[in-house]
Structure formats: C-alpha cells, structure tokens
Amino acid sequence: MGIKRIGKHLLEHRWRVRRDFPPRVLGAIERAIKAGEATHAGQIRFVVEGALDGAPLFRDQPARERALDVFSHLRIWDTVHNNGVLIYLLLADRDVEIVADRGIDAKVGRAGWQAICRAMEADFTARRFEQGVIKGVEAVSRELAKHFPPVAGGPNELPDSPVVI
Predict the structure, then answer these.
(1) Beta-carbon neighbour count of residue 43 at 10 Å?
(2) What's the CA gap between 96 and 115, in Å, rounded?
(3) Do residues 41 and 81 touch, judged by C-beta distance below 8 A?
(4) Which end of the chain is more exposed for a tag (fewer CB within 10 A), N or C?
C-alpha cells in the first residue's frame, strides 16, 4: 500500500465530487443515460466515488475490485437479459472501470470496455468530466444497441440517476 495513494484519498474530500459533478452535470448524465437506453434494451448505471475511505483504502483496494463491489451492491447484475453495465469513476485515482454483466460482456469483451475507459480518462485528465462521462455513456449505448436492440414497451429495470458515493 503506497503512502502517496493513502494521502491522496485522505485529502480527496467530497467537495471535489461536488465541484466536478454539480447537480447540473449529474442531470446531464442522467439525461444521456435515458437517451441511450431508448436505443437499446440494456441498462446503464454511472457511479462516481470521490475517494476510498476506511477498510477499502487501508486494504489498498484497486478501483476494479471496488467497481465489482459497487456492481454487486447496486444489483446491476439483476436484469432479465444480463445486460447491465456499470461505469464507475474513482475520482481520487482518475480511474474509470466498466463492469458489464455476462450477457453483454461476452459480446464486447475486456478490450472493448478498456478502450471506452481510456477515452473517458483522457477527458478527465483534461478536466472535462461532463463531456467524458457523456461520451462514455454514448459509447456503451452503441455497444448495447448492437447486441440488444430496443424492445417496445420494455421496462427500465434500473434507475438512470447517477450515484455519488
């Protein structure tokens, strides 16, 4: 466990999430998710976590492992067609992880998700948080639309609103 990472997470306060993701930006992300889900039968959730604290921090939990925990906690795996996708941002590390349920993951694969993550991280490095997330949601939606076309009257199985931890 690196002292530099611990220090970064301990100093990364909730104010940074509020600064980079104010209500206006969270609303734009929610609208992008709704618009994307109109083009496919999949489900997208976006979660931003300012910094790790407590046990996850002192265990030196990687962002990928934390994203898997969040995916499970939010029950994103609990969709009819196994096509839920989590876009997770650990802001302190500027690390984006995409966790996809088996129905869509088998079709896109790790390399496809990683390409979307790297593009988002490039926007975040340039402090374009809103643009980066919306572009990521659009890219995930394109993948879902290829493999899970929209179903007339299909249910919205998961909330579209972003989650801030």
Answers:
(1) 26
(2) 11
(3) yes
(4) N
More confident of the two residues 55 and 114: 114
User: Rounded to an integer, what distance in angstroms lies between the CA atom of residue 34 and that of residue 36?
Assistant: 5
Q: How far is CA 6 from the centre of its chain?
A: 23
CATH code for the domain in which residue 148 is found = 3.10.310.50
pTM of the model: 0.92
Asked if the model's pLDDT at residue 10 lies above 90, the reply is no
Range of the domain at 128: 3-164
DSSP 115: H
Instruction: Give the DSSP letter of residue 75.
Output: T
Contacts of 7 (CB under 8 A, 6+ apart): none
